[in-house]
Amino acid sequence: MHDRTQIERCPNSEIGTHILEDKVFEMIRDIMLDPGKLRGCVDTGSELDDRSIARGLACVAGKFSALEDERRRIIGRYAAGQMTGEEYIAANRALDERQERLTGKKAQLVAAMRFPQHEDFVDASIRQFCATGNARLQACADFDEKRQFLMDHVERVIFNRYKITIMGSVPVRLPSGETTLKFRIEGEINKWEVRSNASRMGEQKKQLNALVPAVRTDALSATNSI
């Protein structure tokens, strides 16, 4: 699924997979499965921007007007004998094709327009997504179930220099049809905490290694005494 030429080996030896996994699921629980917080991470998209749609409709209306002017000009030329019958028919067919394309474009813009209850539908879809996700995550009992959860609810997890980005989409049902809204959740691993834990674990390992010879010596001494 990815271009392997773009994959680079992570040079950070301090980030264990368990640290990354813990942080990802922390972000999922705290943000992705919280309707209020997830709503702030959702990209509504330019297709849902009423101002952009209004500008698009105004542009289409201007093109419709230009087509009508062109049609009247063609009729005038034909009436004045400046066009043959074949040229007149061909010119009108070309205008009809352009008008048909504009009609389709107008229909798309109208279908994408928001309506008074649009935000209510979006909020309801986000709440449903979070409720379903919460139930699924709580039911995960092993690695395979967690992996399947991520496959079903997350599209991509990006890790770059302690920074983590979770990307996905929320299915939304609108009166005009079904669509999806993309979300992007950003977080960061506390590198000082990671280094502190690594240092602490290293110190514990040293202490354990120092104890091993002493334990072996005591055991040998006990054996010799026996």
What does this structure look like?
The relative contact order is 0.13. Helix 3 packs antiparallel against helix 4 (85-112) and helix 5 packs antiparallel against helix 6. The mean pLDDT is 80. The protein contains 7 helices and 4 strands, in the order ααβααααβββα. The chain has 226 residues and is α+β, with helices and mostly antiparallel strands. It folds into 3 domains: 14-47 and 116-193, no CATH class; 50-112; 194-226. Strands 1-4-3-2 form a 4-stranded antiparallel β-sheet. The chain is elongated, with a radius of gyration of 32 Å.
Low-confidence stretches: none
**How far apart, in Å, are the first and last alpha carbons?**
65 Å
User: In terms of structural class, how would the helical and strand content be classed?
Assistant: alpha+beta
Determine the fraction of residues in helical runs and give it as a percent range: 55-70%
Q: Give the CA-based shape.
A: elongated
Q: Number of helical segments?
A: 7
Kindly report the spatial arrangement of strands forming the biggest sheet.
1-4-3-2
What kind of sheet is the major sheet?
4 strands, antiparallel
Strand residues, percent = 5-15%
Order of helices and strands: HHEHHHHEEEH
Radius of gyration: 32 Å
DSSP strand tally: 4
The count of domains is 3
